[in-house]
Amino acid sequence: MRDMDKVRVLAPSGMLGAGWDHATIERGIALGADVISIDGGSTDSGPYYLGAATAKTTAKAVARDLRSLFTAAAGAGIPVIVGSCGTSGTDSGVDWVAGIAAEVLAEEGLSLEVARIYSEQDATDLKEHLDAGRIHPLSPLGELRAETLESCTHIVGAMGHEPIVEALRAGARVVLAGRATDTAVAAAYPLMKGMPAGPTWHAAKIVECGGQCTSNPRAGGVLATIDAHGFTIEPLDPAVSCTPISVAAHMLYETADPFEMREPAGTLDVRDARYTAVDDRIVRVEGSRFHPAEQYTIKLEGARITGYETVSFSAVRDPLILADVDAWANLMRAMITERVRQTLELADDEYAFDLRLYGHNAVLDDLEPGSGPPREVGVMLLVNAPDQATATAIAKVANPLMLHLPAPGMGYLPSLAFPFSPAEVERGAAYEFVLNHVVDCAPADLFRTELGEKTHA
């Protein structure tokens, strides 16, 4: 039994399915890793993946990464923890990853006990929490309404470390969790082994994105070694380094406050953290603290359908249009609105469209510093309507304008360029996030764990 006055957490990457060199995993095992933890998803890619309960990654990429992790972990006798399975952590996402895991284990002849932790929430149950005053908004959203819960296609709760710890204690060697905080996935095993909360949560935050805290994020993950007084971070690629700045900077990543980060059980506080270079590759961190919350809370995430989208794209290189492309775009918007009203008899509030000029302020809009007329511009029309047929009809009405609309005062009809035929591409249902709320509860109230073979429908 390894001495557990310290715990070593191997974080191979920021996301399952992203890929890595298996040699970095072997090096982490050789350095004494006690657990492998990796995030399986996030909200970074938008609401579609939660709303549609669809994974962002492909099954082959997930299988490749799980094979690397399972073979290494089985040989070392250490557990593997995956959080936010299937990108958004829905129940079907957990089952999807579990099915891939079962195939990989069978192909490799491995027998590892698998736990599945489900985090999807039922709107009816949440309405009871709402009626009891246990659900509270996070900025910038306001008070939650029952109709909002009912409108969601899928709702998940972001678990803390506790359900993962319980699965490990029950004998799981592979934990496949639904939606979880990125840090809970890495913090669970060290906390179970008695490591202090301050260093553990801080180390978990630093390793959540694998090698992003290193000099070369593409080269692989990191190993965090947590002890009673702090932690160290070491890259798994010998040619890569961590520096005090690269490690400290990760507290700026996806946080509203560079000194504090809220977890279900409390708040990580790094105001007094000290970052010291052990050598030219390894960084030591001490002084992190964790303040337990008076009330345990779980963050809710939910998505609903906003309509159906059709997209069209054309390219402009005509110098007369590009001399004042904003005026041309404003004319395009006015003409589309007028033609839709005349042809489809739709009022302005019955649909929406976005005209975006790529190559001219499409990302920063008015914040973009002026630099003269662009050489070429890609024009994206994105239509949103209550049904797919209407969205496509609107895009078709706009088609002649996207191809031939002259600029104000232009003496000829230009021919612009569609990159594909047909020009209209149906994107299907569009989603939006509508929940940014927390619910007062006990750590295990909202989650369900199944060990071994899947038994539920």
Describe the overall structure:
The chain is α+β, with helices and mostly antiparallel strands. It folds into two domains: 7-119 and 159-293, no CATH class; 305-433, Alpha-Beta Plaits (2-Layer Sandwich). It has helices spanning 22-30, 48-51, 59-76, 91-108, 123-131, 146-151, 162-169, 182-192, 197-207, 244-248, 319-322, 325-344, 388-404, and strands at 7-11, 35-41, 80-87, 114-118, 135-137, 154-158, 174-177, 222-226, 230-235, 260-263, 266-269, 274-277, 283-286, 289-292, 297-316, 352-358, 377-385, 424-433, 437-440, 448-451. The strands form three sheets. It has a ten-stranded mixed beta sheet, sandwiched between helices. Strand 1 (7-11), helix 1 and strand 2 form a beta-alpha-beta unit. The radius of gyration is 25 Å and the shape is globular. The mean pLDDT is 95.
Rg is 25 Å
H/I helix tally = 13
What is the end-to-end distance? 39 Å
Spans where pLDDT lies below 50 across 5 or more residues: none
How many β-strand stretches? Answer: 20
Number of spatially distinct domains: 2
Question: Oligomerization state of this entry?
Answer: single chain
Assess the beta-strand content as a share of residues.
25-35%
Helix amount? 25-40%
Shape descriptor: globular
Essential attributes:
seven-stranded antiparallel sheet, 457 residues, globular, 2 domains, 13 helices, ten-stranded mixed sheet, alpha+beta, 27% strand
